[in-house]
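Posting here for the record, re: fe (ii) ion.
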Amino acid sequence: MPSADPGAEADPAIQPRNIHFGFDSELPVNWHSGNPAISHFYDALSLTFPEGERFFIDSVRHFADRITDPELRRDVQAFCAQEAIHSREHRSYNHLLTTHGIPVGGVERFIAKALRISQHWIPAKSQLAATCAYEHYTALFAEAILGDSRVMAGAHPLYRDLWRWHAMEEEEHKAVAFNVYQTVCPGVAGYLRRVLLMSLATFDFLITIPLLQAWLMAKGGEFWNMRSWAHACYYLWISPGIWRHVMLGVFAYLAPGFHPATRPVKPEVLAWRLHYRATANRPPRMTPTLFGE
Ligand SMILES: [Fe+2]
Ligand SMILES: [Fe+2]
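Prediction output follows.
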């Protein structure tokens, strides 16, 4: 891990890094620790990203003309650019699952349809509140991925770099949707709406991700691999416990005075921020050399 620079915290810029990871069929299916259940946990998250991040962009852009603060306008542009690139890379990531014999096109189309129906029926302010809730989740995942080196230990270098890159950008833009939301939905009504949408998002998250993970395990012929499941449960809930970290972090969101920017940033995360600022668009495979991994 690189050394932390206190100056990095003073630089709030959101920097889209247009990285093409170049997923190819040579990459292993069980890319994390050789364990299908852990790999498919991340794959399940990835399945939701291409359409989910498009939903986030739409929900924020909907209120673009209500934002007068020039800095927030710039942040929104950078937010949209980052999420669009994430969406593109995760589409390639997901396509590789199909190449590896797990056809995910139907799942992606189902998610796209569900989100389009939501966009038709759910009020725009609630869509934005949902985005804020999911952005809190992605920020918590980012905190776990960047703040604990055990989380990506055992991962294939390309996947490790992809998840760290995505985590870094989620950490950078974690307050953008929330700032837009506070502009258009202030006060008690805004608070109640965001708490309600966080409850629904939590319900969705806790159902959708394990279901997708189980579906991927079944399609990959690993559903009854109890050893893999047991190892994954230990990894997800005990050590390093990424699910545990995320679920415990959700409670802070329920405080009336919550703001994403006030959450303390771990020194390890600041160190990663400095590293990414210094290596903006270098090929991701260079990072192992820099980190001595
Ligand atoms: Fe993203
Ligand atoms: Fe995001």
